[in-house]
Amino acid sequence: MSSIYCIYHTIFLPLLISSTIITLSSSSCLVMCLGLEINLITFLPILSFPESQFFSQSSMKYFLVQSSSSILLLFLLIFFSPLPSSSSFLYPLIFLIMILKSGTIPLHSCFISISNNISCPSLTLLLTCQKLAPIFILSLLDVPFFLLFLAMTNSILGAISGLTTQMTRLILAYSSLSHMGCILSSMPFSSTGCIFYFIIYSLNTTLCLILFSHTNSFSLNLPSLNTKTKILKLITLLNLAGLPPLSGFTIKCFTLNLIPTNFFMLSMTLISSSAMTLIFYLKLSFSSLFSSFPSNKPISPDSSPLTYLFFPLFILPTLIYF
């Protein structure tokens, strides 16, 4: 197992980070495409690490979606990019390809099924790093306003689907789908605001999954967890849900302020989906907290005290914004 950990930390993870940096820093479309391909090839071995019960069907779905979109992207860049006046239909197609690569509608089912079958570090990368490059490329394009329809669909579908499950992994995946709706909603109005939302969302998701990884469980009602640890897990979940005055609430307010007043339907859709998201997070949190008697045991070594240092990150964006 130690050799596997060595390979993971010295080969796959640095390659994954390097491929993302290549995509973000390049001004060439072909180099960006190369970075996306290196990212895909590197991420596939990470999915099955270290001891996840990863189903080959889910892995194949993810590979087929990502590789098909990559082939289409290469085909467009090689054969249509040199043609004059090709941007009128090239940019919308690249836009659709990046939508598919980011794990949103209409091919979100493989993203959801993968989320329930992989390890916690792999889930963290899937929900954060794997979305960074496609979102960055989308922010560089002249985004059509058809994107707003996809954004509203993502928000509503993610919120409604989250109400139908009690599994924490699936709730995080559906919550990510709903957050993608907010990210895509801000993109036509401010690419900087879109990136800002994604950064705060990624930090919140990473901190939440770090805490669940330290306690070796995605459940809140384990007898080995004392009340303080349960409350800490509760706060991280409510932060993702967007409960004020946490940072999850701040970025949603920031997005709503970016949307012009004549886009009333978009604003109401985001507010409704945020309310539904808060409902299923509250249902998960309080049902788990009150389903067992509180334990007076000290915090286990797996629950690192350093996690408490992340508390300022939950509220700091709110203080800066207001």
TrEMBL record:
<keyword id="KW-0812">Transmembrane</keyword>
<feature type="domain" description="NADH:quinone oxidoreductase/Mrp antiporter transmembrane">
    <location>
        <begin position="27"/>
        <end position="273"/>
    </location>
</feature>
<keyword id="KW-0496">Mitochondrion</keyword>
<feature type="transmembrane region" description="Helical">
    <location>
        <begin position="7"/>
        <end position="24"/>
    </location>
</feature>
<feature type="transmembrane region" description="Helical">
    <location>
        <begin position="62"/>
        <end position="83"/>
    </location>
</feature>
<feature type="transmembrane region" description="Helical">
    <location>
        <begin position="263"/>
        <end position="284"/>
    </location>
</feature>
<comment type="function">
    <text>Core subunit of the mitochondrial membrane respiratory chain NADH dehydrogenase (Complex I) that is believed to belong to the minimal assembly required for catalysis. Complex I functions in the transfer of electrons from NADH to the respiratory chain. The immediate electron acceptor for the enzyme is believed to be ubiquinone.</text>
</comment>
<feature type="transmembrane region" description="Helical">
    <location>
        <begin position="132"/>
        <end position="150"/>
    </location>
</feature>
<keyword id="KW-0999">Mitochondrion inner membrane</keyword>
<keyword id="KW-1278">Translocase</keyword>
<feature type="transmembrane region" description="Helical">
    <location>
        <begin position="304"/>
        <end position="321"/>
    </location>
</feature>
<feature type="transmembrane region" description="Helical">
    <location>
        <begin position="156"/>
        <end position="177"/>
    </location>
</feature>
<dbReference type="GO" id="GO:0008137">
    <property type="term" value="F:NADH dehydrogenase (ubiquinone) activity"/>
</dbReference>
<dbReference type="GO" id="GO:0005743">
    <property type="term" value="C:mitochondrial inner membrane"/>
</dbReference>
<dbReference type="Pfam" id="PF00361">
    <property type="entry name" value="Proton_antipo_M"/>
</dbReference>
<dbReference type="GO" id="GO:0006120">
    <property type="term" value="P:mitochondrial electron transport, NADH to ubiquinone"/>
</dbReference>
<comment type="similarity">
    <text>Belongs to the complex I subunit 2 family.</text>
</comment>
<dbReference type="InterPro" id="IPR050175">
    <property type="entry name" value="Complex_I_Subunit_2"/>
</dbReference>
<keyword id="KW-0520">NAD</keyword>
<feature type="transmembrane region" description="Helical">
    <location>
        <begin position="89"/>
        <end position="111"/>
    </location>
</feature>
<keyword id="KW-0249">Electron transport</keyword>
<protein>
    <recommendedName>
        <fullName>NADH-ubiquinone oxidoreductase chain 2</fullName>
        <ecNumber>7.1.1.2</ecNumber>
    </recommendedName>
</protein>
<keyword id="KW-0679">Respiratory chain</keyword>
<keyword id="KW-1133">Transmembrane helix</keyword>
<keyword id="KW-0830">Ubiquinone</keyword>
<keyword id="KW-0472">Membrane</keyword>
<feature type="transmembrane region" description="Helical">
    <location>
        <begin position="30"/>
        <end position="50"/>
    </location>
</feature>
<feature type="transmembrane region" description="Helical">
    <location>
        <begin position="189"/>
        <end position="212"/>
    </location>
</feature>
<feature type="transmembrane region" description="Helical">
    <location>
        <begin position="232"/>
        <end position="251"/>
    </location>
</feature>
<comment type="function">
    <text>Core subunit of the mitochondrial membrane respiratory chain NADH dehydrogenase (Complex I) which catalyzes electron transfer from NADH through the respiratory chain, using ubiquinone as an electron acceptor. Essential for the catalytic activity and assembly of complex I.</text>
</comment>
<keyword id="KW-0813">Transport</keyword>
<dbReference type="InterPro" id="IPR003917">
    <property type="entry name" value="NADH_UbQ_OxRdtase_chain2"/>
</dbReference>
<dbReference type="InterPro" id="IPR001750">
    <property type="entry name" value="ND/Mrp_TM"/>
</dbReference>
